[in-house]
Amino acid sequence: MNTYDVAVIGGGIVGAAVARLVGGTTLSVALLEARDDVGDGTSKANTAILHTGFDAKPGTLESRLVARGYDLLGDYAQATGIPVERTGALLVAWTDEQLDALPGLRAKAERNGYDACEIVEAAEVYRRVPALGPGALGGLTVPGESVICTWTTNLALATDAVNRGVTLLRGHRVTQAHVGPGATRLATTRGEVTARWVVNAAGLGADALDALFGHDRFTVTPRRGELLVFDKLARPLAPCIVLPVPSSAGKGVLVSPTIYGNVMLGPTAEDLTDRTATGTSEAGLRFLREKGAALMPRLMKEEVTATYAGLRAASGHDDYLIDLDAEQRYLLIGGIRSTGLTAGMAIAEHAGDLLKGHLDLSPRAGLPAPPRMPNLGEAFPRPYQDAAAIASDPEYGRIVCFCERVTRGEIRDALTSAIPPAGPDGLRRRTRAMNGRCQGFYCGARVREIFEGEKK
Ligand SMILES: Cc1cc2nc3c(=O)[nH]c(=O)nc-3n(C[C@H](O)[C@H](O)[C@H](O)COP(=O)(O)OP(=O)(O)OC[C@H]3O[C@@H](n4cnc5c(N)ncnc54)[C@H](O)[C@@H]3O)c2cc1C
Predict the structure, then answer these.
(1) In a mutational test of the pocket of ligand 1, which residue from 13, 42, 172 has the highest number of ligand atoms less than 8 Å from its CB?
(2) Which of 168, 287, 411, 438 has a CA 20 to 30 Å removed from the CA of 99?
(3) Residues 349 and 274 in one domain
(4) Could you tell me the CATH number of the domain that includes residue 164?
(5) What's the whole-model pTM score?
(6) Rounded to an integer, what distance in angstroms lies between the CA atom of residue 308 and that of residue 258?
């Protein structure tokens, strides 16, 4: 059996970023993912904000890696076509106490190396976001906060990894680890995989995996965040991200444009025990509607396209938990709670710095160029709008999903890509098909038919 130099466990944004980085060397690398697709865990269901890190706890590893990740992912997005909208954010104070907190938040941002925040008066708050509910007393601008496509981010990193020679093993849930003198044997649901080094980037499963290596240092608490997605007609109501003043309970409920042209409201923050509880709840949605009614009453009159929930991997530590065990040749990347989309590439860089003392991570000559990803962003040209693309390939002129204007050509491209989707939901994340106001009611059967047809 082949022994890999490095096995990375977890095909979310963090694991994909690590596999991409290590895959750019002469080392042999496997990326093991329990599910049938990459990016099917927490990385598919978040608020998709590219954070500046202005409100992180200064001096923490998270603060440093979010700021670094913001730059790394911003550059990588440009190189690969991951859509980013530089909308900026406005943090709104609704009480005197919150208003008094603004100078402290600006000072904190500066301690985090971000000095572009400005305090603005109520009139300026309403000039920027006229649809806000009554009672705003002032605000803090955060011009760098941006919206991004989390699906394309995960897929770009994983595709890059595969193009660099990483072996992607989907449907491989790691169930046992036997650390031997020269290599670790990983028992998986699809047979054994051996590797000299193991990186644990298993998100919600990172503590269970850590325990397989004999550790007992943290417990993941799934912190559910539920969100409401409003129809595209609501988009003018949210010209930028509207943030609450953060509290000890977390970042709070925000209103944000999405990269697909919608508006979202959320997330909630609720600690659970069930790590599979990604459904929404009546109580959560009621809470969001109450919050939304105060924040932006006009938004509540708009139609809801979808609801969803994601689980943050809260760890009880107030920082990331990244630790290398040289004896076991094992690296834990745990507790990547609510900023891992932004920080993923910087976490990989940090992981690389830790591994460098033990492995030769010099970049290999002749690496392939980063993949050029299909654009899912509403603000940028899509194939159905591109006369030249349609002229050279009429499939880009055949719309299958009319809500999101997804063409037959884009679906074909996804199904024949380096990491084809395992099912219709994966196809949705690669194309936006069935992601619109009808949620697949009209196009679902056709999309499934194409999917099944291509699979044969
Ligand atoms: C509601 C919400 C809002 C958020 N908003 C933002 C935001 O706006 N900006 C931001 O930067 N971040 C945000 N985040 C955080 C961000 O989504 C996460 O930090 C990031 O997705 C974590 O990525 P990951 O790779 O660590 O985990 P995951 O994406 O969960 O990947 C871990 C993978 O490991 C696999 N796995 C687990 N156990 C095993 C095993 N035993 N064997 C093999 N595979 C295994 C899982 O199947 C999974 O695919 C938000 C999170 C939530 C929930």
Answers:
(1) 42
(2) 287
(3) no
(4) 3.50.50.60
(5) 0.97
(6) 14
